[in-house]
TrEMBL record:
Name of the molecule in the record: Lipoprotein
Originating organism: Chryseobacterium kwangjuense
Superkingdom as given in the UniProt entry: Bacteria
Length: 202
């Protein structure tokens, strides 16, 4: 009778063992799948395209002003030509094209300070001003205040202009046929800011 009971329990024990082994394998496969997905995310490699500009020199213009001062300027009803130009440059869409370069002559008059970017920084700048795929796209909803302007030159001819707002991660770029949609993503705004302000262009 006892042997008969053991025989009857045999198939049941086998089924239980198989079930447990199957669950263990499923759990292992699940863990492998998760690790694979994590590896794919960690190994994201951007694909690069065209550089934005072909240049041999860059002039950097910077103005120290806060947002409240700019907004106060916007409320003045009868602004001077200089104040209007300052407003157009800092929060509006000047320049609208690469042919609109007349404003550059007045940048220092309205408070911008000019400095030249040394050529040994061009390689790092090219890593920012280039077409590339990104892992994640972030957008800010704040109003851009463009305190930094980069003028790209080739044999003294202006070939590109980039206005940058580091606070709101926004840009206005003219003079390039490259796709600038992903500009500044994946930490490139921070990278560019470090390039521009480390050692004051030395």
């Amino acid at each position: 009778m006892k042997n008969h009971t053991i025989l009857n329990l045999g198939p049941l024990l086998i089924a239980v063992i198989c079930f447990l082994v199957g669950c263990k394998k499923a759990e292992q496969n699940s863990n492998i799948g998760e690790k694979t997905n994590q590896s794919v995310e960690q190994k994201f490699i951007p694909k690069y395209g065209n550089l934005y500009f072909d240049y041999d020199g860059i002039d950097h213009y910077h103005i120290s002003t806060d947002e409240s001062s700019v907004m106060a300027l916007d409320t003045i009803p009868n602004r001077s030509k200089e104040d209007q130009l300052k407003l157009d440059i800092i929060i509006n869409k000047t320049p609208k094209s690469i042919n609109d370069t007349e404003f550059i002559k007045s940048l220092e008059k309205i408070g911008f300070k000019k400095s030249a970017i040394t050529s040994h920084k061009f390689k790092k700048i090219n890593e920012v001003f280039i077409e590339k795929t990104v892992n994640e796209i972030l957008e800010y909803a704040c109003v851009a205040v463009y305190r930094d302007i980069l003028i790209f030159k080739k044999k003294e001819k202006i070939v590109g202009i980039a206005k940058i707002c580091f606070d709101c991660h926004q840009k206005q770029i003219v003079g390039t046929k490259a796709n600038t949609e992903n500009f500044g993503q994946d930490g490139d705004y921070e990278k560019l800011q470090q390039i521009l302000y480390t050692n004051q262009h030395q």
